[in-house]
Amino acid sequence: MTYNVRPARTSDVRGILALLDPWVQRRVLLGKEVVTLFEAVQEFVVAESDGELIGCGALHVMWEDLGEIRTLVVADGWLHHGVGGAIVASLEARARELGLTRLFCLTFEVDFFARRGFSPIGEQVVDPDVYSQLLRSPDEGVAEFLDLAHVKPNTLGNTRMLKHL
Q1: Does pTM surpass 0.90?
Q2: Which end of the chain is more exposed for a tag (fewer CB within 10 A), N or C?
Q3: Of 35, 37, 80, 33, whose CA–CA distance to 57 is shortest?
Q4: Starting at the edge strand that comes first in sequence, how are the strands of the sheet with 102-107 ordered?
Q5: Tens of pLDDT along 44-74?
Q6: Could you give the CA distance from residue 86 to residue 89 in angstroms, rounded to a whole number?
Q7: What is the pLDDT of residues 75-117, one digit of tens each?
């Protein structure tokens, strides 16, 4: 079972949606609008095998030193074959290229991310000045990072984790 990980292209967006759908139906991930994925396609990498998308993940820059790994999905038939780890490794490499030194994720897959150096975090991860700047972001992922009350129904059962690169 061979696969490769590469930057996503606009032609991958519908395939990314198809990967997300089972996880949205299981209420593990929130659904995304097609336009949102097109707007963020440059943040994504995809894993493919024989031209079929089998996984995806995105790196979203939150601050000068901080990024988030989000929308990490692997097709059911490819779970436990190293695809998720390869996607995370690709996103970490991109984070380093951008000069990020910390990566955040909000996840049910605590053991998976712990094996990759992530640790659960509390509430105060950025200094108060950065916090006040991040409050101005319209991005729901930033609100989840800040653990704001209005996103708590979306984050129930998830663990907030951080890795220092």
Answers
A1: no
A2: N
A3: 37
A4: 4-7, 44-49, 52-63, 66-74, 102-107, 159-164, 119-120
A5: 999 999 999 999 999 999 889 999 999 999 9
A6: 5
A7: 999 999 999 999 999 999 999 999 999 999 989 999 999 999 9
CB 18 within 8 A of CB 53: yes
With b for 16 or more beta-carbon neighbours within 10 A and e for fewer, the 141-153 pattern comes to bbbbbbbeeebee
Per residue, the 3-state secondary structure of the chain, as one string, reads CCCEEEECCHHHHHHHHHHHHHHHHCCCCCCCCHHHHHHHHHHEEEEEECCEEEEEEEEEEEECCEEEEEEEEECHHHCCCCHHHHHHHHHHHHHHHHCCCEEEEEECCHHHHHCCCCEECCCCCCCHHHHHHHCCCCCHHHHHHHCCHHHHHHHCCCEEEEEEC
Interior/surface letters 109-125, b for 16+ CB within 10 angstroms, e for the rest: beeebeebebeebeeeb
